[in-house]
Design brief:
single chain; about 375 residues; alpha/beta; Rossmann fold; eight-stranded mixed beta sheet; 14 helices
């Protein structure tokens, strides 16, 4: 049910220690104007759709499939949002969930905890975020990581930032990690050339080459997004109390690299042996990226993945996950690992409860004659 791709012994020890233990889930929402570039992401069919993806996913994560949404899930050209996976696990396993607004372009639902951040400008500018805002968000992440770590044995940190694999490539590159051609995408074939063109322009405009050693906070300010620094702060402080799952693929590998650099740069206390990256096999085995090699480039990253398989789904929108669409998001992989560990839920059972959530939501939307994917 759970595959280990790197740092086998450390990952195995972590799994054995936290099997059957309680977790808390923190989902961090953010926005980068990078997501508005045509075709940069498939997490929303149009740039306008992508303005609301994180807000809609966050609302659905908290409210579920039986409450009429203020922000309906955006139309996808192909596939169904991974938030259905996460919501199914949150609901069926009783996973306590906290939603954080690190910087959104539109106002989210009231349940989101406002961290006083800001949406990021396009990373091509080399000036994505204000440096003081980055420092503030890091302190907020540290504060909430400490708070949440006392509520359970380990903390799962997920995200929803459209365009986040591109900002991940930018941050990794800014930190000196060779990530070119290795990151993933919501597209079935990763748009590496497009990503690199945007990233290289941002790095050229950033002035980061003048920094020695590289200030990780300056890297985020130049070419990052608001989620990354909050997640890093949360993980660093939570690791002093319990375990941490960075729930995601490329984006959370970038956060892990960021954590390592922050700890070295600022002499923060952090137990890296308690932190791992948990994703889906669709990400870990994506042939159009190289997730495992990227983990090795970063160094000493325990990379795990859930064995979720949607090939037998009754819905085409889920079956296309097996063709490389969507792959991951909203902490789906990390939360599925929790479901395996805490409730011994098998991949087929997770598919079944995910389909049930989708069925309820589809019927709700059809009953109200609201726009929805033609993916039944």
């Amino acid at each position: 049910m759970i595959f280990i791709y790197s740092e086998f012994r450390q990952a195995q020890n972590w799994l054995q220690h936290y099997q059957g233990k309680k977790a808390t889930f923190a989902c961090i929402l953010g926005f980068t104007a990078t997501s508005l570039i045509p075709d940069i992401s498939a997490a929303g069919a149009t740039p306008k759709d992508r303005e609301f993806t994180a807000i809609a996913d966050g609302e659905f994560l908290i409210e579920g499939a039986e409450v009429l949404p203020k922000n309906p899930l955006p139309y996808l050209a192909k596939g169904i949002s991974p938030v259905f996976i996460t919501r199914a696990i949150v609901e069926s396993c009783g996973l306590p969930t906290y939603l954080f607004d690190a910087g959104l372009i539109h106002k989210p639902i009231a349940q989101a905890i406002n961290l006083g951040g800001m949406p990021a400008k396009c990373i091509s500018s080399g000036k994505a975020l204000n440096y003081q805002v980055v420092q503030h968000l890091f302190k907020e992440g540290m504060k909430w990581g400490k708070k949440l770590s006392f509520l359970a044995d380990y903390l799962i940190i997920g995200e929803c930032v459209v365009g986040g694999t591109t900002t991940a490539l930018a941050v990794l590159s800014g930190l000196g990690v060779n990530a070119l051609g290795m990151v993933n995408s919501s597209h079935p074939q990763c748009n590496h050339e497009q990503k690199w063109a945007i990233v290289s322009e941002g790095l050229q405009n950033s002035g980061l080459d003048a920094c020695s050693p590289v200030d990780p906070f300056a890297v985020i300010a130049a070419v990052g997004d608001p989620m990354q620094i909050v997640a890093a702060g949360m993980a660093i402080s939570a690791s002093s109390q319990g375990g941490v799952v960075l729930a995601g693929g490329t984006q959370m590998l970038a956060v892990y690299a960021l954590i390592k650099r922050i700890v070295a740069f600022g002499n923060f206390s952090c137990d890296l042996k308690k932190i791992l990256v948990g994703t889906t096999r669709w990400v870990a085995e994506d042939k159009t990226g190289d997730t495992v090699k990227l983990a090795q480039e970063i160094g000493q990253v325990p990379l795990l993945a859930t064995g979720l398989n949607f090939s037998t789904s009754k819905y085409p929108g889920f079956r296309v996950y097996e063709s490389g669409y969507v792959k991951e998001g909203v902490g789906a992989g990390g939360c599925a690992i929790y479901a395996h560990l805490a409730a011994n839920k098998k991949p087929l059972e997770l598919l079944t409860i995910t389909e049930e959530i989708f069925f309820k939501y589809r019927n709700l939307m059809k009953h109200r004659n609201l726009r929805f994917n033609s993916i039944s």
